[in-house]
Amino acid sequence: MTITLDDARALDARDPLRAHRDRFLIDPDTIYLDGNSLGALPRASRARIAEAVDEQWGRDLIRSWNKHGWLAAPERIGAKIAPLIGARPAEVIVADSTSVNLFKLLGAALAARPGRKIILSEPGNFPTDLYIAQGVADALPGVELRTLAAGAIADAIDEEVAVVLLTHVHYKTGRMLDMAGITRAAHAKGALVLWDLSHSAGAVPVDLNGCDADLAVGCGYKYLNGGPGAPAFLFVAERLQAELNSPLSGWMGHAAPFAFGDDYAAAPGIRRFLCGTPPILAMTALEAGVEEFAGVDRDALFAKSRALTGLFIDLVEARCAGHGFDLVTPRDPALRGSHVSFRHGEAYPICQAMIARGVIGDFRAPDIFRCGFTPLYTGYGDVWRAVDILADIMDTRAWDKDTYRIVLPVT
């Protein structure tokens, strides 16, 4: 039986996370289903950034590196992210971008497995993951990037593979991989695994230590609500930190950065994976976003993610039956992340028509209509109203306008 809007509002009234929605600046006329691309603005972020600009930078100037903890920010914020990904505080640090962190950890993994020359990934992985892996392979003699369907990865790991690079929740399909099983298969052959958590952290259960994970990266601007282009984070298991060295030996990763010596000596622990000067204003915003998870019942958070995605699937299939939507995301809640994708031949104009009606989802080429559900601020009523609008757009063919179609350049 399809639920009604009143049913959805009743679910919102009983939602143990309902108070968190008011902590975000969301236009009441907008249904925001794209927090898996860019998280909403926490209200607390504005005051935190203003204070960092006016007081810390404006008044205290360079004294703020110590007085306001600027130097300690990468480790401090990393420690706040750690509980969301099943890591220890000393295993996570905030630095650079996801792409740069991928480069650092791939390079470190290859150096730690001499004689092994294969980076193993899957076709269709998030493009930057493959691009960075290709760049690393091009830069190192004999190194090769191989790709296989995700289901074949575990059986394909052999003594040639140095590192397996996979995304925990696929950016397009929303499919979640078996982190524990693949990691176990890699370890059996002596390989390392590098997990991309960009579409996982803050929305679905991640247990890096429980899975005996080696390495991970993730971005700060999706479910962690750190703002556009927020700094990323990386994880290195404590058992590997002394063994691995970053190929980007910047001064902030030095054991004694303010001794200003000519020769590089890596810092102990996770700090050796820093490189350049931390972007303090961006880190201030990220820290405010991460702190929105303080005190949140993570079981309730992840259960809501599964419930929201399940509701969206059920409503689209019931209300939009016969309109050509093909579910791409796994139906099993244990196998999917916090976004849902449907394939449709007119996915792009449908997405544009939805945006014109105040429902912000997104499109992924060539034919994916994708909606993300951020459990901290997305409500069940949002899901119901979004599908109600989608059904109307499909029933009336409101998407069928030239203004909603991709205009290709003339060649």
UniProtKB/TrEMBL annotation:
Keywords: Hydrolase, Pyridine nucleotide biosynthesis, Pyridoxal phosphate. GO terms for biological process: anthranilate metabolic process; L-kynurenine catabolic process; L-tryptophan catabolic process to kynurenine; NAD+ biosynthetic process; quinolinate biosynthetic process. Its EC number is 3.7.1.3. GO terms for cellular component: cytoplasm. Pyridoxal 5'-phosphate binds at T98, S99, F126, P127, T128, D129, T167, D196, H199, Y221, W251, T277. Its cofactor is pyridoxal 5'-phosphate. InterPro entries: Kynureninase (IPR010111), PyrdxlP-dep_Trfase (IPR015424), PyrdxlP-dep_Trfase_major (IPR015421), PyrdxlP-dep_Trfase_small (IPR015422). Pathway: Cofactor biosynthesis; NAD(+) biosynthesis; quinolinate from L-kynurenine: step 2/3; Amino-acid degradation; L-kynurenine degradation; L-alanine and anthranilate from L-kynurenine: step 1/1. The modification N6-(pyridoxal phosphate)lysine is found at K222. Homodimer. Belongs to the kynureninase family. Catalyzes the cleavage of L-kynurenine (L-Kyn) and L-3-hydroxykynurenine (L-3OHKyn) into anthranilic acid (AA) and 3-hydroxyanthranilic acid (3-OHAA), respectively. This is Kynureninase. The lineage of its organism: Bacteria, Pseudomonadati, Pseudomonadota, Alphaproteobacteria, Sphingomonadales. The gene is kynU.
